[in-house]
Amino acid sequence: MIRCAECKGKGLCGLPKCPIMQRFYALTDEKPQSEYMGPSPSIFIGSSGYPRVVGGPLLLRESDTPTDWIARGLGMDEIVGIRSKTIRGSQPVKNVLQKAQEVALSSRPLDVEARFEKPIRYDLSFDGTVAPIGLCGKLSHVSVLDNAVVEPAVDRYTSDTEVLATEAASALFLDGIDVYRITSLLTAGLLGSKRRFVPTRWAITAVDDMVSKDLRKRVERLLPLQEIFVHSALLYGNRIVVLLLPSPDFAFEMIERWQTNSLWGGKEDVVVVDGEKRKKQRYSPIAGAYYSARLAVLEYLAMTGRSARVVVIRDISGDYWAPLGTWVIREATRAALKSPPVPCADLQAGEAMATALLGSSFWQGRSELIRDLRSQRTFADFV
Amino acid sequence: MLKATIDADTFRELIDAISALVGECRLHVSESGIATRAVDTSNVAMISLELDAAAFQTYSATQTEIGLDIAKMKNILGMVGKNDPIDLELDAEGRKLSVSFKSYRYSISLLDTKTIRKDPNPPTLNLPAVVKVTGEVLNNAIKAASVVSDKIAFKIDPTKPAFTMIAEGDTDNIKLELGKDEIEFVQVAEARSLFSLDYLKDMGKVIGRSNLIEIQLGIDHPVQFLFTIAQDSGRVTYLLAPRIEAD
User: Fold this and answer.
1) CA dist., res. A261 & res. A264, Å (int)
2) Residue A203 phi/psi, 5° resolution?
3) HAMAP family annotated for this entry (chain B) (predicted)?
4) What is the separation, in whole angstroms, between the first and last Cα of chain A?
5) In B, what residues contact A, Cβ < 8 A?
């Protein structure tokens, strides 16, 4: 059985190149060039061959922040268009690490001047976690023309070499620094007591996880939500339904369906379920999306000051034709939680509402969390 | 006020017993010893624990309450050798606890007791069946069950009498039946309840070290485990609410 929905292009099937990813080749019109002069909004480090990995500053004339793309209402083809013009350096990271750190430190894109050994070539790569990148070339020289603009909080935690990366990440988040910025800082090796650069793909999930763990502790001190609420949103073919179930503790479950003929779906629907009760065991089979959705949910609970158990259902149709990165799920879940909630009288009504919003009952009976809620008694039942 | 010396192993037993269920707790200190009662965030598992002054090498205290970050304490104990004596001393304001062993001296900030949940009221229980079994037998049964399932049923058949543990998974199941030879029937009555292994696994690690566990069981009721720690100078009670499968 081919389990594309769990692998998402990592190459677990053993084929030299992912056949699904192959569809995206030959999509760009960028001219081969061997010099670049312009802004560098962030940093990218690959994960293949770690610790001998390639990467450096990302060269791109437009915004690199997913929240901007959503605010501007860009479509998927426009995002793929922007990303296919993005150039990543394919030289060993250590050659350009210092320059990359300067770029990562700055809250606004810095102007850089870069020269490549050979003209850049087209190499659009998608990988499910990281936003796609179109062009790559070996940088022979980079110089930063601007001065970095650094927020006070970022300055404080990047200068502190005693504080652990986990603590620094959650402290930055509480100071209002967005996870996209924190990811950049972690990637560039600017956080923690033992500084090292982290491949972008790993840093994204690491930041989601570190921040969530801290938020979870805070959420469990809060009072339970008063009512069952259902939220929903649709983003690029991803229908997200969030079921919030009042409880003094936090528990999370994600149910993901790749519909027939969707990106990773194949010839039939694929449903992947994963969850956590008291603690998370092993890495999630849903991969980075699980951690991104959990972050969005915990962020919402911490903000509203209520605790709950949460089921996130993600239904992916064929409209999601290219994997854009886990930010899609983070932003879709955030969007869902911003939408007006539908209050439900009881669990049954909540389930029915979720099914109605999804237009399908594929998820019912698959939720371990709901089964647990029905069968587990508490001491409150024995007064 | 609290000033005491305790053997590292005994202190570790105490902390392990609490940390199996909660990450922080309110510790009641008095002249006669220390005690705590705490429930996990889901209100499904409860611990009550008493440790007599006799468990300590030296002990002097007056009535007070402290909020302890159990998870942090557990990490600190990783540094302590098996039989090192640990000195505990509460500062004058009751804000910090100093923990010293060998040449190390930790000063640990205590939690504000106001931020910790109030001591839970024990539920009303009707547990007619009582058996005694070694901690190892119970822990092994829990470990065996968790291979095939996430829940386990405890049953007592008064006719034989027999104590049965059954775990049913999606495809596999496991059954362990203990008769008079392996287990002591203190009070025989019909009982059967189903429990989540998620909690039992953590309790089992602590229970497994004890020589004798008293299990009190009812019908679709919480289970109560009673055992002693620190060479019988400490008593622990674990309570776990049941699952009731409606199908």
Assistant:
1) 8
2) -65, -35
3) DNApol_clamp_arch (MF_00317)
4) 51
5) 39-44, 46, 115, 120-121, 123-125, 194, 196, 198, 220-222, 239, 241-246
Q: Please list the residues that pair with A111 across neighbouring strands.
A: A39
- What type of residue is A254? M
Higher per-residue pLDDT: B139 or A1: B139
Q: Token digits for A274?
A: 């994963």
Selecting from A277, A375, A379 the residue whose C-beta is nearest the C-beta of B43 gives A379
Start and end residues for every CATH 3.10.150.10 domain found in chain B? 2-115
Q: Report chain B's mean pLDDT, rounded to a whole number.
A: 91
Q: Which residues of B82-109 are buried (b: 16+ CB within 10 A; e: fewer)?
A: eeebbebbbeeebebbebbbeeeeeebe
Q: Which of residues 364-383 of A touch B (CB under 8 A)?
A: 372, 374-383
Which residue ranges does chain B devote to CATH 3.70.10.10?
129-240
Q: Do A376 and B196 touch (CB under 8 A)?
A: yes
Res. A12 pLDDT band, cuts 50 70 90: confident
Q: What is the pLDDT of residue A104?
A: 93
A178 contact B CB<8A: no
Q: How many helices (H) and strands (E) does chain A have?
A: 12, 15
What pLDDT, in 10s, does the model give residues A117-176?
888 877 777 777 777 787 888 888 889 998 999 999 999 999 999 999 999 999 999 999
Q: What is the mean pLDDT of residues A79-92?
A: 84
Cα of A107 to nearest chain B Cα, Å: 35
**Per-residue three-class SS string for A169-230:** HHHHHHCCCCHHHHHHHHHCCCCCCCCCCCCHHHHHHHHHHHHHHHHHHHHCCCEECCCEEE
The three-state secondary structure class of B9 is helix
Judged against a pLDDT cut of 50, whether residue A79 lies above it is answered with: yes
pTM of the model: 0.84
Fold of B129-240: Proliferating Cell Nuclear Antigen (3.70.10)
- Write the pLDDT tens digit of every residue in B95-130: 899 999 888 888 999 998 888 888 888 888 889 999
Fold classification of B2-115 (topology level) = DNA Polymerase III; Chain A, domain 2 (3.10.150)
**Nearest-CA neighbor of A96 among A143, A56, A51, A136?**
A56
Residues found in chain B: 247
Look at the block and give the residue holding tokens 């479950």: A253
The arithmetic mean of pLDDT across residues B136-164, rounded, is: 92
Structure tokens at B50: 């008493």
Q: Are strands A133-137 and A223-224 parallel, antiparallel or unpaired?
A: unpaired
Residue B26 has what pLDDT?
92
CB contact under 8 A, B123 and A382: yes
Nearest to A375 among B198, B221, B244 (CB): B244
A188-225 per-position pLDDT tens digit:
999 999 999 999 999 999 999 999 999 998 998 899 99
What is the length of chain A? 383
